Amino acid sequence: MKKTLITTSLRLIPKTLQNKALCKALNYLFLSAPLGNLKGQVVKLNVTDIKKSWFVSYGDAGFEATKLRKVSAEIKTKLNVAMSLNDKQVIINALKNDELQVTGEPNLAEAITNSLYALDEKRLESISNHLFSFFNIKNKQPQKAPRLDIHNIKDSDLTDPLNVDFIRDEAMRLESTDLKKALQLMLLAQKVRPNGKVINNKVKTYQAKLATTN
């Protein structure tokens, strides 16, 4: 992937749209991460070799774009690492080799670093595919078959916690394009995890949105 292609895309894509996509990706990747210490803090994401940076704050709704520039932590890397999101080992190696650096207040930097080490590979792969689409670039990396056929989920599939994670994540992936299907999937996840906070909140949100469109 050519650096010039990415930088050209970033010049053409409005910053507000970049921020929206970035925060959605961060919230998806760090859905269950213990980032309570980040609440109210500003994090700078810095891709040094293309001289591009984004500023986000962390609150009750997760990561959001901010105009504040007084940062408490910074995540700094180069484009080749940033575009290797589908490979967890690349991220781990980059952290160990200081090709991916997290700096700032010690407790915040530690929380972010630990969360990066614990990233879910399935979510990384999904984000990577979306990232290629966002830049309108063909992803030449081999695609893995999905864990389940979301149109043919059996009760026996729900006995595996990883399958339930997949169903929940697929629901969130579809929420902006097929809300009815997203609700169907999230309700399946809710059957197994009736006390799941994220799942219950999503079910309520989807039902409310669908009620206003009917």
Count of individual beta strands: 5
Q: Nearest-angstrom radius of gyration?
A: 18 Å
SSE-based structural type: alpha+beta
**In which order are the strands of the major sheet placed?**
3-2-1-4-5
Estimate the mean pLDDT confidence. 87
- Give the count of helical stretches: 9
| Cα-to-Cα separation, first versus last residue | 44 Å
Main beta-sheet annotation? 5 strands, mixed
Helix content: 40-55%
Which of globular, elongated, flat, extended, rod-shaped describes the shape?
Answer: globular
Which spans of ≥5 residues are poorly predicted at pLDDT below 50? 137-141
Tell me the fraction of residues in β-strands, as a range.
5-15%
The succession of helices and strands, N to C, reads: HHEEEEHHEHHHHH
Layout of strands and helices, then pairs:
Blueprint: H1 3-12, H2 15-29, E1 42-47, E2 52-59, E3 62-65, E4 73-77, H3 79-82, H4 88-96, E5 100-104, H5 106-117, H6 121-134, H7 161-174, H8 179-192, H9 197-213
Commentary on this structure:
51% of the residues lie in helices and 13% in strands. The chain has 214 residues and is an alpha+beta fold. The protein has a 5-stranded mixed sheet with strand order 3-2-1-4-5. A hairpin with a 4-residue loop joins strand 1 (42-47) and strand 2 (52-59).
